[in-house]
Amino acid sequence: MGKQVTEMLKGTLEGIVLAILSERPAYGYEITAWLRDQGFSDIAEGTIYALLVRIENRGFVDVEKVPSEKGPPRKVYSLNDSGREHLAEFWRTWSFLAERLEQLRDGAAPA
């Protein structure tokens, strides 16, 4: 990933993770692996874990400790009602920005 993509991703990663969790509960490594499979190869596992702690502290997810075959129990995150509301706001904001960027790209910049 180039530097510009990395910088843009920083501002949207929370919304991306919430969107992943809106589909089904997941644990940190699982989210990281999915992102890497989608082409976000430069995302560090630690980045995702730090983000999960933040969204847990903000009350957007519920956490369940699930036994693991290897090592300590896994923390499985699932989106709760507050997280769904926050994700809906993220998508509204994303749509607004995407529309304005498309207008700029198409040469409809304000005079």
Summarize the structure.
The chain has 111 residues and is an alpha+beta fold.
Shape: globular
CATH class: Mainly Alpha
What is the architecture at the second tier of CATH? Orthogonal Bundle
- Count of discrete structural domains: 1
Count helical runs: 4
**Strand and helix order:** HEHHEEH
Stretches where pLDDT is under 50 for at least 5 consecutive residues are none
Q: What class would the helix/strand composition place it in?
A: alpha+beta
Total strands: the figure is 3
Largest beta sheet: what is the strand line-up? 1-3-2
Let me know the CATH homologous superfamily. Answer: Winged helix-like DNA-binding domain superfamily/Winged helix DNA-binding domain
Beta-strand percentage? 5-15%
- Fraction of residues in H or I helices: 55-70%
Q: Give average pLDDT, whole number.
A: 91
Protein described:
It is a single chain. Helix content is 62%, strand content 13%. The protein is α+β, with helices and mostly antiparallel strands. The mean pLDDT is 91. The protein has a 3-stranded antiparallel sheet with strand order 1-3-2. It has a single domain (3-105), classed as Arc Repressor Mutant, subunit A, CATH 1.10.10.10. It has helices spanning 3-23, 28-37, 45-57, 81-105, and strands at 26-27, 61-66, 74-79.
